[in-house]
Amino acid sequence: MPLLSLAIWLPILSGVLLLAFGGREERAGAVRWAALIASIISFLVTIPLVTGFHTSLATMQFVERHDWISRFNVYYLLGVDGISVWFVLLSAFITVIVVVSAWQVITERVNQYMGAFLVLSGLLVGVFSALDGLLFYVFFEATLIPMYLIIGVWGGPRRVYAAFKFFLYTLAGSLLMLVALIYLYYKSGGSFDILTWHRLPLSLDAQVLLFFAFFFAFAVKVPMWPVHTWLPDAHVEAPTGGSVVLAAIMLKLGTYGFLRFSLPITPDASHEWAWFMVALSLVAVVYIGFVALVQRDMKKLVAYSSIAHMGFVTLGFFMFNELTTSGAIVQMISHGFVSGAMFLCIGVLYDRVHSREISAYGGVANTMPKFASLAVLFAMANCGLPGTAGFVGEWMVILGTIGAQHFWIAAIAASTMIWGAAYTLWMVKRVYFGKIVNEHVRELTDVNGREFAMLGVLAAAVIAMGVYPKPFTDVMHASVVHLLRQTSITKISP
């Protein structure tokens, strides 16, 4: 059974059908149920990819290959390894959560909202499973369209500005990647097969140019400092579902690109410029942590914290050892759960009070005890509390960095737990604890069954991954070892 094709095209076709036939207001209820059923089925399709995955193999699995543009040797080529399979599952899972989160919030253009997220879900799965360079680029760029519409149509007062900034930043960065893909196509004798590119012997000069071409495309997506300024604006103006997908999945497209392209195709350039990547990662961890400390908008605070956490990911990749690389990938997955949950919590409060300002709250735990319990759990995970998903990846990166004889780099990176605790607990104290100082907080009602189930599932995932991360690391182990073997082999052409 073509599981990957089903995971890609089932949500896309479902979204297109909703766009075509669900426009009438009286159909809104049916549209919601159709979107939920389609998202659940799409998620169920991805589960056999993990349960049927052979953890001892580093090769691509569930491979599908069909002719697409035969004249130029372009194929519809799909497959997943122990790294990408988790992001296929995560993309489908987060889409279910987003559909549930919008159940009562979105009341206008419901079919367009649900359709946009379903189409986006399929495109994201396509990015993580594409093994043809041109196919990857098509999926990679196509994800911009539904997210641009989600921000621009359902966003806040400055939604058009934020949508344009998001679109232009990410599109501009990707143009250099297209040039790199075309170069690799001719260098490989007319092939867009990404795995073939992994074996290409390239001169150091060519590798450096390719490395920076990929860098500009993927650094904007992560986003790395100093090309991060689009993210806070996009998060603040995006609707809750848009912020969740943006933080949980779309930021991972950049870090995944480093794994699939930069490291295995340009290993020598990656080693030569590792200091540059480490420096930018540490700036993101420390400087952005200080920036988050002065935020008064909850969404902006969490958005800046995401940039700091992604700095941990790129740091782990460019330490070139198994523990840091595995830890960085674990951090990518855990960040999907934790950041998505935090944006959902902000959305729950915004739906009731219509403000994201920290000063508009205070004492929420008095009127919303069940919600506050879950929100504080996610905040602790964002701080890196042991026993939660937020701790595992960061701990692995720090420990691996020390093991690689880079104590001071590890010490600077570890400071993120201090800054993370500072800005997160500062927000928690002022929003959830203390006396009720605003009358609208006194009138708040606790989460309903839908909201509690939505947040409860994420809470279970955060705790389960924090207590027992072994299933994640077991699946990715062989692929990580294979990737590091590729990056350690000199591929400079004679």
Walk me through this protein's architecture:
The chain is mainly alpha-helical. It is built from 22 helices and 2 strands. A two-stranded antiparallel sheet has the order 1-2. Strand 1 (61-69) and strand 2 form a beta hairpin. The longest helix has 32 residues, at 322-353.
Major β-sheet profile: 2 strands, antiparallel
What overall form do the CA principal axes indicate? globular
Our measurement of the CA-to-CA distance between the termini, rounded to an integer number of angstroms, reads 44 Å
Q: How many helix segments? A: 22
| Amount of beta strand | under 5%
Instruction: Give me the strand/helix succession.
Output: HHEEHHHHHHHHHHHHHHHHHHHH
**Oligomeric status:** single chain
What are the segments in which pLDDT stays under 50 over at least 5 consecutive residues? none
Give the strand order of the largest sheet, numbering strands 1, 2, ... along the chain. 1-2
Mean pLDDT: 87
**Helical content class:** over 70%
Radius of gyration: 22 Å
Total beta strand runs: 2
- Class computed from helices, strands and strand pairing: mainly alpha
Briefly say what this structure is:
This protein is mostly helical. 74% of the residues lie in helices and 3% in strands.
